[in-house]
Amino acid sequence: MNILEVTIRLFLAIVIGGVIGYEREYQNRPAGFRTHILVCVGAAVISMIQLYDVDQTVNMILAHPELSSALKADIGRIGAQVVSGIGFLGAGTIIHEKGSVKGLTTAASLWVVACIGLAVGLGYYTLSILATITVAVVLVSLKKFESKFLGKSNLIKIEVLYLDKQVMIQKIENYFQSKNIKVKNIEFILEEEMEDCEAKYGRSLYSILVPRYISTGKIIQDLASNSEVIKVTVI
Questions:
Q1: 3-state SS string over 16-68?
Q2: What whole-number distance in Å separates Cα of residue 120 and Cα of residue 142?
Q3: Share of residues in the chain with pLDDT > 70 (%)
Q4: Can you tell me the distance from the alpha carbon of 88 to that of 81, in angstroms, rounded to the nearest whole number?
Q5: Using DSSP, how many helices (H) and how many strands (E) does the chain show?
Q6: What is the mean pLDDT of residues 68-92?
Q7: Are strands 153-163 and 229-234 parallel, antiparallel or unpaired?
Q8: pLDDT over 90, % of the chain
């Protein structure tokens, strides 16, 4: 490859990594604009190094035919290490917080940017450009579709006033589990703080992740149907 070809491939890697990274940066994700550019450029460099190794091996065999059985060039070996190795960087963008996992999409975008970078470095321009357009459509357009139609969860906060604290807390937890509702946080109000209630009452504040197919009204109705529950309020 000449200098012009190398320059074109590096420039295309910067553009591709920048396009995908800009969307992640705009969404305020852990790995953004520069990270995606560096991953794409790095993958392109690795694939070009591999092409140089292949060219050098071929030229050496042409100059010394007796080495043909001793020299081998595997055009996919180094690239395979990039595809698997990028997992360490992607793992760093995944955050586990209070029962929810964030960063999986960013980790996947880093992995696919590395794959596209390999394609750029190998000179597959059409494949690289079409793949970039596809990734951009998935990240931008399908996000709207996902948030509107697919079963993501809503975060709501409810206050439950009840009798018999020990029994009712277990019943509430069992109800949430049966409905696939995740509890992100529980706050128990101390009895001395409950000036408007008798000491035998209990009050808890639940921050929960509710699937979209379950309405808030249904949750309130189900909890209020327990004889031990005095009142359920959405905060």
A1: HHHHHHHHHHHCCCCCCHHHHHHHHHHHHHHHHHHHHHHHHHHHHHHHCHHHC
A2: 25
A3: 83
A4: 12
A5: 7, 6
A6: 73
A7: antiparallel
A8: 0
Of the candidates 12, 25, 38, the residue with the CA atom closest to the CA atom of residue 140:
25
Q: Which domains does the chain have, with CATH numbers?
A: 3-148 (no CATH), 153-234 (3.30.70.260)
Residue given tokens 């409810």 in the structure block: 158
* C-alpha span between 111 and 87 (Å, rounded): 7
Q: Identify whether the C-beta of residue 168 lies closer than 8 Å to the C-beta of residue 162.
A: yes
CA nearest neighbour of 44 among 169, 132, 153, 158: 132
Task: Give per-residue pLDDT as tens, 182-228.
Answer: 888 888 876 544 455 544 677 888 888 887 778 888 888 888 888 88
Write down the pTM of the prediction. Answer: 0.57
Q: For 43-53, give one letter per residue: b (16+ CB within 10 A) or e.
A: bbbbbbebbee
- For the stretch 16-43, pLDDT in tens is 888 888 887 777 776 778 888 888 888 8
Token code pair at residue 128:
């690289």
Q: How far apart are CA 235 and CA 187, in angstroms?
A: 13
Closest CA to 140 of 31, 24, 16: 24
How far is 68 from 50, CA to CA, in rounded Å?
Answer: 18
Tokens 């450009």 belong to 129
CB atoms under 10 Å from CB of 5, counted, come to 11
> How do the residues of the chain divide into helix, strand and coil, expressed in percent and rounded to 5?
60, 20, 20
Longest dimension (CA), the chain: 96
- Which of 95, 97, 113 is closest to 34 using CA atoms? 113
In whole angstroms, what is the distance from residue 117 CA to residue 110 CA? 10
| pLDDT value at 75 more than 80 | no
